[in-house]
């Protein structure tokens, strides 16, 4: 699935979940989708044969499991909310992108290099990035080049915030100039209108005010 379609799916999820502001809370969305969410700590409490370190080694920060068509997401919350928010949205991405279709199928976040850059891992990351840090909203708020702002407003880990800011300032702007990014105007418009109150309240205003205009006409005389 290409990036445009992934973005479209992420935006549609936000619209369906009635998101009107940042941060997008992936745990709330997972619950709305009727997924079962549990922390690693709770999972270990229930199944004492499991241990935390081997869960992390084997599955990374989160696991999604399909049980008779019901999705269960287990998440490591010991790294804090920034990582957990990302990991849960990444797993939602796996479910919606059809990566865990079969009963009993399980997917974790392997940190092994050979798994990290497989097409399905990259697609789930792309989904998480578009759902938690929607391009159209960050652009409307003039937050595209502020990594710290993106991190705290969207509740995403440092590396994802800086990747987003890098992407927004290179690819997104380039695509916008070429005018070929508006391939799904309807869901973009809908998302903008849902977020309009938030954008108006917290967006950074970019004004080119008359009073900041420097009049050089006087300077010229000095040199004359
Ligand atoms: Zn994954």
Care to describe what's here?
With 224 residues, this protein is of the alpha+beta class. The protein has one domain (3-199). The chain is built from 13 helices and 4 strands. A hairpin with a 2-residue loop joins strand 2 and strand 3 (70-75). The model is unreliable at 220-224 (pLDDT under 50). It binds zinc ion (ZN). Zinc ion is lined by residues 90, 94, 107, 109, 121, 124.
Biggest β-sheet: count, sense, barrel? 4 strands, mixed
Helix content: 55-70%
Q: State the order of secondary-structure elements, H for helix, E for strand.
A: HHEHHEEHEHHHHHHHH
Summed over residues and divided by their number, the pLDDT gives a mean of 87
Q: Helix- and strand-based class?
A: alpha+beta
What is this entry, summarized?
The chain is α+β, with helices and mostly antiparallel strands and 224 residues long.
